[in-house]
Amino acid sequence: MSTPLPLHILEPSQFGRAQMLLDENWLDHDADLAPVLPVVLARGVGRDWHKAGTFRHHLVGVARSLALWRQPREVRLLGLLHSVYGNAFVDLVKFDAGSERGRLRDMVGDAAEELVYLFCTASRAQFTQRLLAGEIELDGSVTVERIGPAQGTVRLGAYEVAAFLVVTMADFMEQWFSWQDDIFSGFPQVAHRPQGVHWMAALWPGPMRPSARMVHQVSRLGEALRHPALCDRLPLPPVFAGCAKGLTAADEAAATSLYWSVIQQDQPLVQADATIAVLEQSVRHNPWVGEPQMLLAQLYLAAGRRDEARAAAESALQIFSQWGNAWDKRVQWEAWVSWTRILLQSATEDTWPERLDKLNNLALRN
Fold first, then answer.
1. Dist CA 132 CA 145 (whole Å)
2. How much is the pTM?
Protein backbone atom coordinates (compact mmCIF):
# COMPACT_ATOMS: atom_id res chain seq x y z
CA MET A 1 0.00 0.00 0.00
CA SER A 2 1.36 3.44 -0.94
CA THR A 3 2.01 6.10 1.68
CA PRO A 4 -0.88 8.60 1.98
CA LEU A 5 -0.16 11.98 0.46
CA PRO A 6 0.68 14.72 2.99
CA LEU A 7 -2.17 17.01 1.91
CA HIS A 8 -3.42 20.11 3.72
CA ILE A 9 -6.87 21.04 4.94
CA LEU A 10 -8.36 24.17 3.37
CA GLU A 11 -8.92 26.75 6.13
CA PRO A 12 -11.69 29.22 5.23
CA SER A 13 -10.09 32.05 7.21
CA GLN A 14 -6.74 31.73 5.44
CA PHE A 15 -8.41 31.40 2.03
CA GLY A 16 -10.61 34.40 2.83
CA ARG A 17 -7.56 36.57 3.50
CA ALA A 18 -6.02 35.39 0.24
CA GLN A 19 -9.17 36.21 -1.73
CA MET A 20 -8.99 39.81 -0.52
CA LEU A 21 -5.52 40.09 -2.08
CA LEU A 22 -6.31 38.59 -5.49
CA ASP A 23 -7.25 41.98 -6.96
CA GLU A 24 -4.13 43.63 -8.38
CA ASN A 25 -5.20 46.86 -6.67
CA TRP A 26 -5.50 45.26 -3.21
CA LEU A 27 -2.83 47.55 -1.82
CA ASP A 28 -5.01 50.60 -2.49
CA HIS A 29 -7.27 49.40 0.33
CA ASP A 30 -4.49 48.94 2.88
CA ALA A 31 -4.59 52.04 5.07
CA ASP A 32 -0.94 51.62 6.11
CA LEU A 33 0.58 50.94 2.68
CA ALA A 34 -1.69 52.82 0.26
CA PRO A 35 -0.32 56.32 1.03
CA VAL A 36 3.25 55.12 0.44
CA LEU A 37 2.80 53.36 -2.90
CA PRO A 38 2.31 56.48 -5.11
CA VAL A 39 5.55 57.98 -3.77
CA VAL A 40 7.44 54.78 -4.56
CA LEU A 41 5.80 54.50 -7.99
CA ALA A 42 6.88 58.05 -8.74
CA ARG A 43 10.47 56.83 -8.39
CA GLY A 44 9.98 54.52 -11.39
CA VAL A 45 9.69 51.11 -9.70
CA GLY A 46 7.01 50.10 -12.22
CA ARG A 47 9.56 50.43 -15.04
CA ASP A 48 12.55 48.73 -13.40
CA TRP A 49 13.45 45.12 -14.18
CA HIS A 50 13.63 42.80 -11.20
CA LYS A 51 14.16 39.02 -11.42
CA ALA A 52 10.84 37.52 -12.60
CA GLY A 53 9.07 40.83 -13.23
CA THR A 54 9.38 44.51 -12.37
CA PHE A 55 10.55 46.08 -9.14
CA ARG A 56 6.96 47.10 -8.44
CA HIS A 57 5.78 43.48 -8.84
CA HIS A 58 8.47 42.39 -6.40
CA LEU A 59 7.83 45.00 -3.72
CA VAL A 60 4.05 44.50 -3.85
CA GLY A 61 4.46 40.72 -3.90
CA VAL A 62 6.61 40.75 -0.76
CA ALA A 63 4.12 43.07 0.95
CA ARG A 64 1.28 40.73 -0.06
CA SER A 65 2.88 37.75 1.67
CA LEU A 66 3.43 39.85 4.78
CA ALA A 67 -0.21 40.91 4.72
CA LEU A 68 -1.27 37.25 4.48
CA TRP A 69 1.03 36.50 7.40
CA ARG A 70 -0.69 39.27 9.44
CA GLN A 71 2.51 41.16 10.13
CA PRO A 72 2.36 44.55 11.91
CA ARG A 73 2.50 47.86 10.08
CA GLU A 74 6.27 48.41 10.38
CA VAL A 75 7.09 44.97 8.99
CA ARG A 76 4.66 45.32 6.08
CA LEU A 77 6.17 48.71 5.28
CA LEU A 78 9.63 47.14 5.42
CA GLY A 79 8.42 44.59 2.87
CA LEU A 80 7.16 47.32 0.55
CA LEU A 81 10.33 49.40 0.92
CA HIS A 82 12.98 46.79 1.67
CA SER A 83 15.40 47.76 -1.12
CA VAL A 84 14.66 51.44 -1.73
CA TYR A 85 18.01 52.57 -0.29
CA GLY A 86 19.68 49.87 -2.40
CA ASN A 87 21.63 46.93 -0.96
CA ALA A 88 24.39 44.47 -1.85
CA PHE A 89 22.10 42.57 -4.22
CA VAL A 90 20.17 45.42 -5.87
CA ASP A 91 21.50 48.66 -7.36
CA LEU A 92 18.01 50.21 -7.52
CA VAL A 93 18.50 53.17 -5.21
CA LYS A 94 15.12 54.94 -5.04
CA PHE A 95 15.88 57.09 -1.99
CA ASP A 96 19.30 58.51 -1.19
CA ALA A 97 20.20 57.34 2.32
CA GLY A 98 22.52 60.31 2.68
CA SER A 99 19.91 63.02 2.03
CA GLU A 100 16.39 61.54 1.98
CA ARG A 101 16.02 59.53 5.16
CA GLY A 102 14.09 62.42 6.66
CA ARG A 103 11.57 62.38 3.83
CA LEU A 104 10.95 58.66 4.18
CA ARG A 105 10.79 59.06 7.97
CA ASP A 106 8.10 61.71 7.63
CA MET A 107 6.10 59.38 5.39
CA VAL A 108 6.30 56.09 7.32
CA GLY A 109 7.48 57.01 10.81
CA ASP A 110 10.75 56.58 12.68
CA ALA A 111 10.40 52.87 13.52
CA ALA A 112 9.59 51.71 9.97
CA GLU A 113 12.26 53.91 8.36
CA GLU A 114 14.91 52.63 10.78
CA LEU A 115 14.02 49.04 9.85
CA VAL A 116 14.29 49.88 6.13
CA TYR A 117 17.64 51.63 6.62
CA LEU A 118 19.09 48.76 8.66
CA PHE A 119 17.81 46.18 6.18
CA CYS A 120 19.45 48.00 3.28
CA THR A 121 22.78 48.69 4.99
CA ALA A 122 23.37 45.42 6.88
CA SER A 123 25.02 42.57 4.99
CA ARG A 124 22.12 40.34 4.04
CA ALA A 125 24.39 37.54 2.82
CA GLN A 126 26.15 37.49 6.18
CA PHE A 127 22.82 37.75 8.02
CA THR A 128 21.51 34.74 6.09
CA GLN A 129 24.73 32.80 6.65
CA ARG A 130 24.60 33.36 10.39
CA LEU A 131 20.94 32.49 10.72
CA LEU A 132 21.37 29.29 8.71
CA ALA A 133 24.36 28.42 10.90
CA GLY A 134 22.28 28.98 14.05
CA GLU A 135 24.47 31.88 15.17
CA ILE A 136 21.80 33.70 17.19
CA GLU A 137 22.66 35.01 20.64
CA LEU A 138 20.60 33.95 23.66
CA ASP A 139 18.85 37.32 23.61
CA GLY A 140 17.97 36.87 19.93
CA SER A 141 20.49 39.38 18.61
CA VAL A 142 22.80 38.98 15.62
CA THR A 143 25.83 41.12 14.74
CA VAL A 144 26.69 41.63 11.06
CA GLU A 145 28.87 43.87 8.96
CA ARG A 146 27.51 47.01 7.33
CA ILE A 147 27.77 47.55 3.59
CA GLY A 148 28.25 50.65 1.45
CA PRO A 149 29.23 53.98 3.04
CA ALA A 150 28.03 52.70 6.45
CA GLN A 151 31.18 50.95 7.71
CA GLY A 152 31.75 48.74 10.73
CA THR A 153 29.27 46.34 12.27
CA VAL A 154 25.73 46.61 13.56
CA ARG A 155 24.02 44.61 16.30
CA LEU A 156 20.49 43.69 15.31
CA GLY A 157 18.17 43.26 18.29
CA ALA A 158 15.67 40.41 18.60
CA TYR A 159 12.78 42.35 17.07
CA GLU A 160 14.93 43.45 14.12
CA VAL A 161 16.20 39.90 13.61
CA ALA A 162 12.63 38.54 13.64
CA ALA A 163 11.46 41.23 11.21
CA PHE A 164 14.40 40.61 8.86
CA LEU A 165 13.78 36.86 8.98
CA VAL A 166 10.10 37.19 8.08
CA VAL A 167 10.76 39.68 5.28
CA THR A 168 13.66 37.58 3.93
CA MET A 169 11.39 34.52 3.74
CA ALA A 170 8.82 36.49 1.75
CA ASP A 171 11.53 38.15 -0.35
CA PHE A 172 13.20 34.90 -1.38
CA MET A 173 9.94 33.13 -2.21
CA GLU A 174 8.62 36.03 -4.28
CA GLN A 175 11.62 36.30 -6.57
CA TRP A 176 13.63 33.09 -6.62
CA PHE A 177 13.56 30.69 -9.58
CA SER A 178 16.08 28.61 -11.53
CA TRP A 179 17.76 31.63 -13.16
CA GLN A 180 18.92 32.72 -9.71
CA ASP A 181 19.83 29.16 -8.78
CA ASP A 182 22.34 29.42 -11.63
CA ILE A 183 23.74 32.92 -11.22
CA PHE A 184 23.76 32.78 -7.38
CA SER A 185 24.99 29.19 -7.23
CA GLY A 186 25.81 28.33 -3.62
CA PHE A 187 23.97 31.30 -2.08
CA PRO A 188 24.47 32.59 0.56
CA GLN A 189 28.05 31.29 0.24
CA VAL A 190 28.56 33.13 -3.04
CA ALA A 191 32.09 32.84 -4.44
CA HIS A 192 33.29 35.98 -6.20
CA ARG A 193 35.18 34.57 -9.16
CA PRO A 194 35.21 34.98 -12.93
CA GLN A 195 32.32 33.02 -14.38
CA GLY A 196 32.75 33.57 -18.10
CA VAL A 197 32.25 29.90 -18.95
CA HIS A 198 28.81 30.01 -17.33
CA TRP A 199 27.26 32.84 -19.34
CA MET A 200 24.83 30.49 -21.09
CA ALA A 201 23.21 29.84 -17.71
CA ALA A 202 22.64 33.58 -17.35
CA LEU A 203 20.31 33.92 -20.37
CA TRP A 204 17.30 35.54 -18.70
CA PRO A 205 14.74 34.23 -17.85
CA GLY A 206 15.94 30.76 -18.79
CA PRO A 207 13.57 27.79 -18.73
CA MET A 208 11.67 29.21 -15.71
CA ARG A 209 12.03 26.08 -13.61
CA PRO A 210 11.11 26.52 -9.96
CA SER A 211 14.07 26.73 -7.64
CA ALA A 212 15.61 23.40 -6.62
CA ARG A 213 17.24 24.81 -3.48
CA MET A 214 15.57 27.90 -2.02
CA VAL A 215 12.47 26.44 -0.32
CA HIS A 216 14.82 24.40 1.86
CA GLN A 217 16.64 27.56 2.94
CA VAL A 218 13.38 29.40 3.58
CA SER A 219 12.18 26.54 5.77
CA ARG A 220 15.38 26.81 7.82
CA LEU A 221 14.87 30.56 8.21
CA GLY A 222 11.37 29.79 9.44
CA GLU A 223 12.78 27.33 11.96
CA ALA A 224 15.10 30.10 13.21
CA LEU A 225 12.00 32.11 14.10
CA ARG A 226 11.29 29.41 16.70
CA HIS A 227 14.33 30.61 18.71
CA PRO A 228 13.10 31.28 22.30
CA ALA A 229 13.99 34.98 22.08
CA LEU A 230 12.31 35.43 18.66
CA CYS A 231 9.18 33.25 18.59
CA ASP A 232 6.91 35.78 20.34
CA ARG A 233 8.17 38.91 18.58
CA LEU A 234 5.96 38.62 15.47
CA PRO A 235 3.19 36.36 14.17
CA LEU A 236 4.78 33.20 12.84
CA PRO A 237 4.16 32.76 9.09
CA PRO A 238 1.66 29.92 8.48
CA VAL A 239 3.98 28.17 6.00
CA PHE A 240 5.74 24.94 7.03
CA ALA A 241 3.03 24.30 9.65
CA GLY A 242 3.71 27.60 11.39
CA CYS A 243 7.48 27.27 10.82
CA ALA A 244 7.51 24.06 12.88
CA LYS A 245 8.49 21.74 10.00
CA GLY A 246 11.52 21.62 7.76
CA LEU A 247 12.39 20.57 4.23
CA THR A 248 15.71 18.91 3.43
CA ALA A 249 17.82 20.01 0.50
CA ALA A 250 17.65 16.49 -0.97
CA ASP A 251 13.85 16.38 -0.77
CA GLU A 252 13.52 19.78 -2.43
CA ALA A 253 15.86 18.83 -5.28
CA ALA A 254 14.04 15.55 -5.86
CA ALA A 255 10.58 17.14 -5.74
CA THR A 256 11.51 19.88 -8.21
CA SER A 257 13.08 17.40 -10.63
CA LEU A 258 10.02 15.13 -10.56
CA TYR A 259 7.65 18.06 -11.00
CA TRP A 260 9.61 19.50 -13.90
CA SER A 261 9.74 16.15 -15.67
CA VAL A 262 5.94 16.31 -15.81
CA ILE A 263 5.94 19.92 -17.00
CA GLN A 264 8.37 18.98 -19.77
CA GLN A 265 6.05 16.07 -20.65
CA ASP A 266 8.80 13.53 -20.07
CA GLN A 267 6.07 11.32 -18.59
CA PRO A 268 3.20 9.76 -20.58
CA LEU A 269 0.03 11.85 -20.56
CA VAL A 270 -2.37 9.80 -22.70
CA GLN A 271 -2.52 7.21 -19.92
CA ALA A 272 -1.65 9.22 -16.88
CA ASP A 273 -0.93 6.54 -14.26
CA ALA A 274 2.84 7.02 -14.46
CA THR A 275 2.54 10.80 -14.49
CA ILE A 276 0.26 10.73 -11.45
CA ALA A 277 2.72 8.48 -9.63
CA VAL A 278 5.59 10.87 -10.40
CA LEU A 279 3.64 13.88 -9.11
CA GLU A 280 2.55 12.02 -6.00
CA GLN A 281 6.18 11.29 -5.27
CA SER A 282 7.03 14.96 -5.82
CA VAL A 283 4.39 15.91 -3.24
CA ARG A 284 5.74 13.38 -0.75
CA HIS A 285 9.20 14.91 -1.09
CA ASN A 286 7.93 18.50 -0.80
CA PRO A 287 4.38 19.02 0.53
CA TRP A 288 4.94 22.75 1.11
CA VAL A 289 4.32 24.12 -2.43
CA GLY A 290 0.98 24.05 -4.19
CA GLU A 291 1.71 23.63 -7.88
CA PRO A 292 2.43 19.86 -7.89
CA GLN A 293 -0.76 19.24 -5.93
CA MET A 294 -2.73 21.43 -8.32
CA LEU A 295 -1.47 19.41 -11.29
CA LEU A 296 -2.42 16.23 -9.46
CA ALA A 297 -5.95 17.56 -9.01
CA GLN A 298 -6.33 18.02 -12.77
CA LEU A 299 -4.94 14.58 -13.56
CA TYR A 300 -7.18 12.99 -10.93
CA LEU A 301 -10.17 14.73 -12.53
CA ALA A 302 -9.23 13.48 -15.97
CA ALA A 303 -8.94 9.97 -14.54
CA GLY A 304 -12.37 10.18 -12.90
CA ARG A 305 -10.91 10.22 -9.37
CA ARG A 306 -13.17 12.99 -8.14
CA ASP A 307 -12.64 12.70 -4.37
CA GLU A 308 -8.86 12.65 -4.71
CA ALA A 309 -9.07 15.62 -7.07
CA ARG A 310 -11.03 17.62 -4.55
CA ALA A 311 -8.60 16.83 -1.73
CA ALA A 312 -5.58 17.78 -3.87
CA ALA A 313 -7.21 21.01 -5.11
CA GLU A 314 -8.17 22.06 -1.57
CA SER A 315 -4.64 21.33 -0.36
CA ALA A 316 -3.07 23.32 -3.21
CA LEU A 317 -5.44 26.22 -2.55
CA GLN A 318 -4.49 26.19 1.13
CA ILE A 319 -0.79 26.37 0.31
CA PHE A 320 -1.28 29.15 -2.25
CA SER A 321 -3.28 31.03 0.40
CA GLN A 322 -0.40 30.68 2.86
CA TRP A 323 2.38 31.90 0.56
CA GLY A 324 0.77 34.70 -1.44
CA ASN A 325 3.34 34.07 -4.17
CA ALA A 326 3.95 31.35 -6.74
CA TRP A 327 6.73 28.78 -6.53
CA ASP A 328 6.46 28.10 -10.28
CA LYS A 329 6.80 31.58 -11.75
CA ARG A 330 5.74 30.81 -15.30
CA VAL A 331 2.43 32.48 -14.41
CA GLN A 332 1.53 34.77 -11.53
CA TRP A 333 0.16 33.69 -8.15
CA GLU A 334 -3.32 34.96 -8.97
CA ALA A 335 -3.48 32.68 -12.03
CA TRP A 336 -2.46 29.59 -10.04
CA VAL A 337 -5.16 30.37 -7.48
CA SER A 338 -7.80 30.94 -10.18
CA TRP A 339 -7.12 27.66 -12.00
CA THR A 340 -7.05 25.75 -8.71
CA ARG A 341 -10.48 27.15 -7.88
CA ILE A 342 -11.70 25.90 -11.28
CA LEU A 343 -10.39 22.43 -10.42
CA LEU A 344 -12.01 22.48 -6.98
CA GLN A 345 -15.33 23.62 -8.47
CA SER A 346 -15.18 20.83 -11.08
CA ALA A 347 -14.34 18.19 -8.47
CA THR A 348 -17.10 19.38 -6.16
CA GLU A 349 -19.77 19.53 -8.84
CA ASP A 350 -18.46 16.62 -10.95
CA THR A 351 -18.43 18.83 -14.04
CA TRP A 352 -15.01 18.17 -15.58
CA PRO A 353 -15.42 18.34 -19.39
CA GLU A 354 -15.00 15.19 -21.44
CA ARG A 355 -13.67 17.09 -24.50
CA LEU A 356 -10.33 18.88 -24.51
CA ASP A 357 -11.64 21.92 -26.37
CA LYS A 358 -14.17 22.53 -23.57
CA LEU A 359 -11.31 23.34 -21.18
CA ASN A 360 -11.28 26.72 -22.88
CA ASN A 361 -14.86 27.37 -21.70
CA LEU A 362 -14.34 26.83 -17.99
CA ALA A 363 -15.30 29.68 -15.65
CA LEU A 364 -15.92 30.20 -11.96
CA ARG A 365 -19.55 30.49 -10.98
CA ASN A 366 -19.07 32.02 -7.55
1. 16
2. 0.95
